[in-house]
Amino acid sequence: MHMKVNDVGSETGSGSRNHISKVLVINTPGLANKGSEAVVIGAISCIEKSIPQADVTFLCHHYEADKEAFSRIADVSSLRFRVKRHPWYREFSSKPLTAICSGIRCSFSLPYCALCRIAPKFGLKPRNVFQECDLIIDLNVDSLNEYYQGAFAPIFVLLTMLHGAVAGKPIVVCAASIAPFRRRILRFLLRTVLNRTQLITVREKFSLEHLQASGVVKPRMHLTADLAFLLEPCSTERVDVIMKCEDILGCERPLIGVAVAHKSLFARPENYVRLIAQASDGLVRQLDATLVYISNSFQAGARNDISTIQEIYQRVKAKRKVKLIRGEYTAEELKGIISRCDLFVSTRFHPLVASTSMAIPSVGLVGYHSYKWNGVIGEMMEQQEYLINMDEFDDYDALQALLISKVCHAWRNRDSVREKLTERAELAKELALHNGGLIRNLIDGLQ
After folding, report:
1. What is the mean pLDDT of residues 45-64?
2. Could you tell me the maximum CA-CA distance found in the chain, to the nearest angstrom?
3. If you count Cβ atoms within 10 Å of the first and of the last residue's Cβ in the chain, which end, N or C, has fewer?
4. Residue 252: which domain range?
5. What percent of the chain has pLDDT over 90?
6. CA 8, CA 54: separation in Å to the nearest integer?
């Protein structure tokens, strides 16, 4: 799939460059999750600023589902890029069939990749997407863990990365979170593959310390920031249209946005649904607030947030003070909606990145991947006080009371919280852009 290709000049901030780098972006997260879309847009923004002459190809393993979103992004981007179907991954209706078919195709793809590397010595030029690029950027974000799909996700990510290593191309793992593996084979594969990369940037200290402890010692490693900090909200005019369509324009203040995750992400799904519903009623009583439930994931099946939002809404008593965002919106549009909130509560990670990046006092309910919440929101944004780890609570009533208390505390201290978030957001954006600077330096070193 070829996106709109825009011509860019040969002048950059560091002077004239004649070489146009061919960049291959692999392990692109699925754009049905709008947090992942925010990361992809942030990555494009980062590449635009750091290597504006780059000719970029995204390898997409959710090609059919994501091609429309990529086309929309291309329409507003000055970066030249195209999207191609993943060379060996094929998704079927069942996970076992997907794993078997993809595994068979991969077993042929890896040797072919090696063949393409040595073929020019014999005057042959077989085509291969890995061999044709100058640099590979891995954008797996947080797939190097066993939480989402067990061993399947990290194996897929590492095998795709291994193709680049076999092709002899420099590899950058960009702004990732990497969790410890339980399985010994995964720890071995992680160490083997990542030691063949040239640069790894991570979103929090935990991942950096884990990599060092795991024996990943060869690539340069840097602490940067989540690429989603670079996402800009849509225009105020567009937000007004959305707010009117969703019957939110003119609602009583304070307006509290609530990013609701699908209940399957939590250890106690029914407790989670009851918690959000009853806490919503509590916040209406305490602050006379209007709540807006926001979905961040529109994935097919179990990880679509809308079904859980509807289930929570059915349990809320103060329905007249609770609004539901029913439409599917882009990452920029969702950030625009969040920008109108006075407070924000999130059980998903990237909506919290969006709210804190706009200096909106926010409370995070942490039910999964606590290391990235604590590292990015807690440490980088200095908001540890407003993170609640749900797994630490056996007492449901105490958890509900703490959530309401934290939101009320953020409201009372909103001016000081906004001041701190404004300061930290600037740093986070600088560190997110630093990913591009590090990649630019790597490219310059290769020329």
Report:
1. 92
2. 77
3. C
4. 236-427
5. 77
6. 9
